[in-house]
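I hope you will forgive my troubling you with a question about protein structure. The record follows directly beneath this note:
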Amino acid sequence: MGRPTPRRRIWKALGALAVVLGGGTVGYWVLGLTPLDALYQTVITVSTVGFREMFAPTGANKVFTIVLILVGVSTGLYAFGAVLEVVIEGDLFDMWGRRRMERKICSLSNHVIVCGHGRVGRSIAGHLAAGGFDFVVVDQDPERLIGAGYLTLVGDATNDHVLREAGIETARALVAATSTDTTNVYLTLSGRALRPELFIIGRARVVDSEAKLLRAGADRVINPQAIGGARVAAMLMQPHVSEFLDVITHSSEVEFRLSELPVGSNSSLTGLTLREARLRERTGALVLAIRDVEGGFKTNPGPDTAMANGDVLIAIGTDAQLAALVTLSGVAGTPDRLP
């Protein structure tokens, strides 16, 4: 077995001290003192304060007091040493910090769980933080999480109890972004079993793993190597288009940005055509594409294109224009959230 955690060492020391105080109180009570006097005599004996004795100096009282002094002083020194050790090593502050972080994680809902804090996981977390999303990063290597600056959890995400600690019951999405495809497949299976309706994104290092992640239950599979290669090729072939898409998608310094808006059954847009809704005239936002419930895209939709329940509008505009589009549709929330 490994070394006990700081919390376990402190609780063990305090538990032993409580047993000694309880045993001393009961012993003096049996020897004839009142409960309050018995507790008082135990405390001054264990602490070696040396106030006057509350009992007659009989043989039984003396023997019991000698035993209590030997046991109590040893236990008190052990408890003091345990607390001093964790304070000197900094473990106590780390423990309090982890407890605060655990309480914050427990209070989360509709958040994202990012499993893995390597190069890909750090990039995901950085973009989520910049976008104002609530998220938790899980990694079994505590060194990777030092100085992260956001909510983290040390543990093996393939274990169900770790995913529960990360709040999978109330999460909106799970990202399997560890460095191995095998682990990501297992994570996807675990997440799908714990939350059948959860939106899951899996990272694949090799092409053969993409189909396995989909079979395991991933809603989307991302291959960073393939995406990186495609972006390099696009930058070579159409550099201006590529840079425009990068800026408008990720930069906060431009006026316009791309966003998405779901059309639900409670939306005022359901059943209307783009002409009837007059979105451009009423909000200033421009609808670039519509994704239907089957996953297909209608790019550059015409004015007679109807919007149905379950469609997702891909729009471009300023923050104010996109907010007006949300208000007009009657859908709560912002238009650029995850499914």
